[in-house]
């Protein structure tokens, strides 16, 4: 079960290997599960530097890369893609 | 100011309410308010489209008939169907009765509204019920910005025929297959 999840995560990482991450975003990870309706889902987790006063530009950059990754995931998987921003 | 605008303003206030360490309650309520802002915008717009101004109160009652889960299903189907049409694949995710009414693929601005609705509804669920999750300001602020962008996108597309089909489908699509 765990090995299957690892394989899936590896496959997803491969999908987004060529996506250019904006400044302040260090990596993308994937979390698999079901959403609140019970549908198969994947959370695209963007790891960003913590920011208590994010600028509009920073948020727009995050949304742009989120949309790019989401679009790739949607074309490659039947899981519904959601985006989450984790800070470090 | 309309209720949905007030909710969006409240979300923006809550997400930056504390100058330093944000309270979880503020971030969670910001995300929740951002979802409800978009929900009430779409309900108001669809109810306006579907009901006359007279008698007073009818439009409000029609607005109360909208259901969160049905609206999310409509959004998901249209997003998937439109994406498939964009790749020259079958748009079967859109129910047969709705499909011929639409010009596919759907306008990107409308797709961004649909996407925002699905995203924000899921985020609202996490914000209101998943107490194990710790929210950070950047994540919450991005959700609030998603709602703000969806408001702007809706303004650009609300008079398009596809937007009218979408607005009607939000309430009625589940009955069209009968």
Supply the key terms:
heterodimer; A: 88 residues; Alpha-Beta Plaits; 3 strands; B: 178 residues; mainly alpha; 67% helix; globular
Structural overview:
The complex is a heterodimer of chains A (88) and B (178). Chain A has two helices and three strands, in the order H-E-E-H-E. Chain A is of the alpha+beta class. Chain A has a single domain (2-87), classed as Cation efflux protein, cytoplasmic domain (Alpha-Beta Plaits), CATH 3.30.70. Chain B has one domain. Chain B has seven helices and no strands. In chain B, helix 2 packs across helix 5, helix 4 packs across helix 7 (161-172) and helix 5 runs antiparallel to helix 6 (137-157). Chain B is globular and about 50 Å long. The mean pLDDT of chain B is 95. Classes of the chains: A alpha+beta (88), B mainly alpha (178). The interface between A and B is medium-sized, with 27 and 29 residues.
Brief summary:
The complex is a heterodimer of chains A (88) and B (178). By secondary structure, chain A is an alpha+beta fold.
Q: Name the beta content range of chain A.
A: 25-35%
Order of helices and strands of chain A: HEEHE
Count of alpha and pi helical runs of chain B: 7
Rounded to an integer in angstroms, the radius of gyration calculated over CA atoms of chain B is 17 Å
The DSSP helix count of chain A reads 2
Total number of distinct structural domains of chain B: 1
State the shape of chain A.
globular
């Amino acid at each position: 079960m765990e090995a299957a999840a690892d394989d899936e995560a590896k496959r997803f990482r491969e999908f987004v290997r060529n996506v250019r991450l904006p400044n302040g975003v260090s990596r993308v990870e994937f979390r698999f599960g079901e959403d609140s309706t019970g549908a198969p889902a994947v959370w695209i987790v963007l790891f960003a530097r913590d920011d208590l006063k994010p600028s509009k530009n920073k948020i727009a950059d995050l949304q742009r890369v989120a949309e790019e990754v989401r679009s790739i995931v949607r074309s490659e998987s039947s899981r519904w893609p959601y985006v989450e921003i984790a800070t470090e | 100011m309309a209720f949905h605008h007030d909710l969006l303003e409240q979300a923006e206030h809550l997400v930056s309410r504390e100058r330093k360490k944000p309270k979880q309650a503020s971030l969670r309520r910001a995300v929740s308010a951002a979802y409800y802002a978009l929900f009430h915008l779409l309900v108001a717009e669809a109810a306006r489209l579907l009901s006359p101004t007279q008698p007073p109160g009818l439009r409000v009652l029609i607005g109360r008939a909208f259901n969160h889960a049905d609206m999310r299903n409509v959004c998901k189907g249209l997003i998937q169907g439109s994406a498939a049409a964009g790749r020259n694949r079958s748009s079967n995710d859109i129910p047969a009765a709705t499909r011929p009414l639409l010009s596919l693929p759907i306008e990107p601005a409308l797709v961004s509204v649909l996407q925002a609705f699905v995203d924000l509804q899921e985020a609202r669920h996490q914000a209101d019920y998943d107490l194990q999750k710790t929210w950070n300001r950047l994540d919450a602020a991005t959700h609030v910005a998603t709602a703000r962008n969806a408001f702007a996108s809706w303004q650009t597309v609300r008079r398009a025929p596809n937007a009218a089909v979408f607005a009607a489908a939000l309430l009625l699509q589940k009955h069209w297959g009968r």
